[in-house]
Amino acid sequence: MPGWHPVLAEALALRVGHSGGIRTLSGSRTSWSSAKAWIQFLASLERPPEAVDELTREHVDAFYTRPGFAESTRHIQMREMCKQFENQRISRRLPAETWDAFKRRLNRPKQAGVGGYSHGELERLTAAARADVSRIARRIRAGEQLLRQARDDPGGLDAQQRELGATLVRIAETGVIPLLEGDRNWLRRRADLAGHLFMTWADLAPVMALLAVVTERNGESLKELPVRHRLLEDRAVEVVLVKRRHGVQRWFETVTWEIGPKSRELHTPGGLYLLLLELTSRSREICGSSSAICFWRNNWAVARRGRAEHFAPFEMDLALGSGIEMSTWAATRTKPVLADPRPSPKAKAPEDGPAKGPPVPLTVTFNKIKTSVDARRTRQLGGHLPSSAKSNTAQVLFTNYLKPDESTREWAEEVITEALRDAEQAAMDAHAAVSGRRGGGPKVITDDSSAQQLEEAGLAPQTARDLSNGHLDTAWTACEDHDHNPETGAPCDDSFLACFHCGNCLVTRDHLPRLLALLEALGVLRQRVCEDDWWRRYGPAWVAVRRDILAKFSPAEVSKAREQSLPDALLDLVEPPWEQP
């Protein structure tokens, strides 16, 4: 397909170049593999388009729906080719209908979201990471103290400390850890010796886990933490972070992290960042890196020994994060970090309570930590997504972090339940207050609605006859004395919704179908109106009908009325403009 080569080469160069949206080696490989899949697909067609102007919508549709490829693969490649062609220098060469086909909305393949940790799991993980980082800091600071004593006053040390101190002096001067060969544990002893002055691979897992929890940033940004920073009156530190997936020209973000007191350095992002620089300073001086994460590795089996064992791993490859092994660290601690008990697959009798499986070590990943801290921050801010969004947009925060998280869903359900309970209680209070001013609420007569039965229920003879004949009916109930409002004494001009709080209101069994129709209409309206507005306008009437009227009829009477053909709800009688003077 030589006619396509210049266009694809230019599109790929724009995509992975300095002004493009790809900022990593893996992203560049994805762009290249997508372009390769595109050209191979065109070449496989019975009548391939030899040039760009021969491309049609059918070709694009066939690429997106081609068989033999996973849905996720087709989605990624189609989206990538759209990105490569979107530059105006490329898109203007495509036929209009073809470019329109590329710009279609692509439905993301359904994938299981990465849930976060429960509150207890996050607390246990944070406590374990904080304890281990504290131990690492005490170890290296003790090693630095011994080094200073060995240089300044070796006579004040005992024989064993003097020997270790002399070794640390040589290590500090050369950066080289001796091999210590001679017994089966010499590798372990060599790592322990280096640990007096340097961070090691084993230290990286708790440090990275605690950084993710305290800074609330994703793993990629933490791997590229820079050394360069600016102190703001020793109260905060200003750092420029890198996040390559923020979009074109938005890879850098300046953040300000609180430092706090020295005793709280493991609890504040600024304090932890400065502690990291302190613990890695010697390795960084040796390898000359500008990265904050720089430490010593035990490279005894390869040629790169000596000073080359000090390195900044993520300057070379961000994918080296797989070697951090945070889950292994959590499982192999003296006190392992355990996940919440899960239900046992073996069924038990309900009276025995929920079955619990054996303790399982917690799986620790950057994604799960990020999901958990984002959910925690969102809860602390009352669920307001624009305020909760920190390193992502509100839409990305909800779709990728909050929606898949089980604990967030449980919290949201609790919030909604509590809000509905408050709204219902407010409606009940409003109904009780108005009913108190208007004679105590409706009179409900559950007996037969004949004039004789109504008169026996306590109504005046003329009122009983008028009510039985339907002469007193309003929208959903009946009114005993329309000319005298119990609150004002004047003819009533209130909304029909106010009838449910009025002492003049009369309800018989004949009104049940209309009341049920009203409840159904209010339920439909509730799906269309803001919840707060619905409760404020219709909630008191809804409460009165459910609690003060229907509750006085038997379930059989209500069910019998529901089986009838319900009349029109007449809800428009209480909507503007009818209630407008």
Textual characterization of the structure:
The structure is a single chain. The protein is mainly alpha-helical. Helix content is 50%, strand content 5%. The protein has 23 helices and 8 strands. It has helices at 5-16, 25-44, 57-64, 71-85, 88-91, 96-102, 119-152, 159-174, 186-194, 201-215, 219-223, 269-287, 313-316, 326-332, 366-380, 385-388, 394-402, 406-437, 451-456, 461-469, 512-526, 531-549, 555-563; strands spanning 230-232, 236-242, 252-258, 295-296, 310-311, 443-444, 478-479, 505-507. It has a 3-stranded antiparallel β-sheet. A 3-stranded mixed β-sheet has the order 6-8-7, with no helix packed on it. Strand 1 (230-232) and strand 2 form a beta hairpin. The radius of gyration is 36 Å and the shape is elongated. The N and C termini lie far apart (76 Å). 30% of the residues are buried. The model has no long low-confidence stretch (mean pLDDT 83).
